[in-house]
Design brief:
With about 300 residues, the protein is of the alpha/beta class. It has a single domain, classed as Cytosolic phospholipase A2 catalytic domain, CATH 3.40.1090.10. The protein is about 35% helix and about 15% strand. It contains ten helices and ten strands. Strands 1, 2, 3, 4, 5, 6, 7, 8, 9 and 10 form a ten-stranded mixed beta sheet that branches. Helix 1 crosses helix 10 and helix 2 packs antiparallel against helix 3. The radius of gyration is 18 Å and the shape is globular.
Length: about 300
């Protein structure tokens, strides 16, 4: 089976969209998708609308029209006011919810309604654990997608059952192991995270905060890829979409250029693909599922600690 794994990276998710076009043109279509943060939104969009021309055209148009106010609506003064009031975030969650809801067909509510399996991750602030959504066909996906994309401090946590959920990228920005656990033998990681480049010094509160988030995602990225490369009988294609690395994760003004850059990068990779292969894995071990409808704690198959 083929899986697409899409990392987090804010506005850089447009690079993923461009890469997806190139993969589709090459005849590479996934059996299921996995996403974290903005990658979760791209994954959900594909699971809702499919990989045919109409679905991909809709994805392109969505990225062309997205604006910062759709994701981070507050002006600096209002954000400062929210901070002084002790709110949970600098921006409210209404704008993001409205934007995501508009991209979803009205007849689709649950993971079972989607055109293909879709797995999304989110981080629970109460237990400090990663949770996986998409295993229950009856579970609704909107809250899961919003939780996976809710950047801490910028967006409010999403309450779900007894959980307090934020961005899945905090704990697992490249959830490749989820794809392996679900049986994928060919995995395409569309990574829009930071790749180790030395950047110009950050200036201003917004840019410094954005860069800080990137640092967290970077640490998560390398740990996740290291885990994914241990004891696995899969081909893992790591397509690193590194263009526009100096652009803030909150800057959506260059989405068209990013899609083109992502398309070109993926095309270049496809000319000379460099998959990583690994041996057969041992049986996976997981903790017993918590009684949280629609979600279970995700414990890495390669993790050495098991939570009671």
């Amino acid at each position: 089976m083929i899986a697409f794994v899409m990392s987090g990276g804010g506005s850089r998710g447009a690079l993923q969209a461009g890469a997806i076009f190139a993969l589709r043109e090459a005849g590479i279509v996934p059996d299921f998708v996995v996403g974290s943060s903005v990658g979760a939104l791209n994954a959900l969009h594909l699971a809702c609308h499919g990989f045919e021309e109409a679905g991909l055209t809709r994805l392109r148009k969505t990225w062309e029209k997205v604006h910062k106010r759709n994701i981070f609506p507050s002006n600096p003064w209002f954000s400062a006011f929210r901070f002084l009031q002790g709110k949970d975030s600098l921006h409210g969650g209404t704008a993001l919810r409205k934007f995501v809801t508009k991209q979803i067909p009205s007849e689709m509510k649950t993971f079972g309604d989607l055109l293909m399996p879709c797995y999304l991750t989110a981080t629970d602030l109460r237990t400090q654990r990663l949770y996986l959504f998409g295993e229950s066909a009856d579970s609704e996906f909107l809250e899961a997608a919003l939780a996976s994309a809710s950047i801490p401090v910028l967006h409010p946590p999403i309450p779900y059952q007894d959980l307090q959920l934020v961005d899945g990228g905090v704990l697992d920005n490249v959830p490749a192991e989820v794809a392996m656990d679900k049986g994928a033998l060919e995995i395409w990681v569309l990574n829009v995270g930071y790749g180790g480049q030395r950047l110009q010094a950050a200036k201003g509160v917004q840019e410094i905060f954005s860069r800080t988030i990137n640092v967290v995602l970077t640490d998560s990225l390398f740990k996740d890829l290291d885990r994914a490369m241990e004891n696995r009988n899969v081909q893992l294609h790591h397509v690193h979409l590194s263009a526009f690395r100096d652009v803030s994760i909150m800057d959506f003004s260059r989405s068209k250029q990013m899609m083109e850059a992502g398309n070109q990068t993926a095309r270049a990779y496809l000319v000379a693909p460099r998959p990583l292969s690994f041996p057969q894995p041992p049986p996976s071990e997981f903790v017993a599922p918590l009684r949280i409808p629609g979600a279970r704690e995700w414990v890495s198959p390669s993790a050495r600690h098991i939570v009671d």
